[in-house]
Amino acid sequence: MKKIVAALLSVFAYSVCFSQEDGTWVEPSKESQAYHEYRLKISRPPDGLGKVLALIAKTGDDEDENTSLPPKKEYMALSMREKLTYHLLHGESYSQNCDAMPPVPDEHKKIFAQLPDAFGEYSWSQRQQNFMKANRDSVIALMSASIQRSNRVGVNYKKAIIDINGREMIPLLISTYNRDHKDHDILTLLMILMKNNEYAPFLSSASYKKLYADEGTSYQAFLNFNTANEALIIERATAFYNGLPKKG
């Protein structure tokens, strides 16, 4: 039931957009709406997909703990790769957001400071985050193979890359972005990786100050999308990656 309510709230919030100029609510353009939906798409790992989706359908909400958990016995029977598929597709922790913000107009013309939520009002529980960090190399291998097959980086993959600090995936992220230059959230992901790793040239940049200096407004901050900003983000991310310690 919670997931249905969360989905309905998301649809309602997107149906209108606030115009700062005259204080009225306006509908986003069709192009902006299409890009908004594109940003929310998730990637589906192939390992045990049907089995995992059937398990997710059996998850039950614990109203007291605000969690959505599968039957323990069936979860424990999953293989390692099937467990990774499960975690990448399902958020166990529920947190109701009563202050959902309407989307920003012209999303396709912006590079946002933050990524959209992968699972609406659900997110990965602490145990899920711990599992992915403990199996970091396997998560990176699974996502990398999936990205190379599909040429897409779903919002769930982007979130996982942040959680496990998957900075070694930067070349793959850049090459995937360069195929069509459409998914500006890959640029967002590159900036978040630089920020989280305290990459000095980025922390001292005008882009960082505009996007992340004020944590209270960062969720709605953005850069205008243009070739100059695009090239600068990729250039910085490449330099950051090239400066990382190499594995022996």
Number of helices: 13
Given helix and strand content, the structural type is mainly alpha
Radius of gyration: 19 Å
Number of beta-strand segments: 8
Distance between the termini: 50 Å
> Strand share of the residues?
5-15%
Based on Cα principal axes, name the global outline. Answer: globular
Give a short overview.
The protein contains 13 helices and 8 strands. With 248 residues, it is mainly α.
Descriptive notes:
This protein is mainly alpha-helical and 248 residues long. 51% of the residues lie in helices and 8% in strands. The chain is built from 13 helices and eight strands. The chain has helices spanning 2-14, 30-39, 49-56, 72-76, 80-89, 126-134, 136-150, 155-163, 170-177, 184-196, 200-203, 206-212, 227-242; strands at residues 17-18, 25-26, 60-62, 67-69, 93-94, 110-112, 122-123, 222-224. A two-stranded antiparallel sheet has the order 1-2. The radius of gyration is 19 Å and the shape is globular. The chain starts with a helix and ends in a 6-residue tail after the last helix.
